[in-house]
Amino acid sequence: MVDKNNSQKSGKIPLRIDPKLHEALAKRANQEGRSLNNFLTKLLEEGLHPETFEDRQFVGQVISGENFDLASQLVNVSGIYYRYLIDNSSRVHQDADYAIIEANGNILTLRELK
Fold first, then answer.
1. What is the mean pLDDT of residues 58-76?
2. 36-48 and 19-31 are packed helices; what angle lies between their axes, rounded to 10 degrees?
3. CA–CA separation, 98 vs 6, rounded Å?
4. Higher pLDDT, 46 or 60
5. Membrane-spanning residues where (predicted)?
6. Same domain for 45 and 84?
7. 44 and 57 belong to one structural domain
8. Closest by Cα among 94, 93, 114, 110 to 102
9. Average pLDDT of the residues in 46-56
């Protein structure tokens, strides 16, 4: 639909979503210490404007804990080893899965999925 008025938007969007999705989004926002509104705004901005090539290539991928080389502190992603930071844990659990939430050069920030 085309906005024929070219008027400035209010910044408010009424949105209906499945209650289970609402609950999951609220939980993720809480885990990040954000309000639901702030979390959704961040997700929309990141989706609209991926910040870097690395973000576009990696963010959102899920990595198995089996892909970590704990001795060298590297993680294997698609056959290439990267340094990593764990966002919500002090150590890697090799029986867990991790989502890549940020990529900066050869350093990936990962979050354990619970």
1. 91
2. 90
3. 43
4. 60
5. none
6. no
7. no
8. 110
9. 63
Contact status, residue 36 vs residue 42, Cβ threshold 8 Å: no
68-75's contacts with Cβ under 8 Å and 24+ in sequence apart are 68/92, 68/94, 70/94, 75/108, 75/110
pLDDT at residue 58 greater than cutoff 60: yes
Same domain (yes/no): 99, 73: yes
Number of domains in the chain: 2
Residue type, 84: Y
Q: Are residue 44 and residue 85 in the same domain, yes or no?
A: no
pLDDT in tens, 11-47: 888 889 888 889 988 888 888 888 898 888 888 877 7
Positive or negative CA dihedral for 26, 28, 33, 37? negative
Q: 59 and 35, same structural domain?
A: no
Full residue range of the structural domain in which residue 101 is found: 53-114
d(CA 3, CA 25) in angstroms, rounded, equals 29
Place of tokens 């885990």: 31
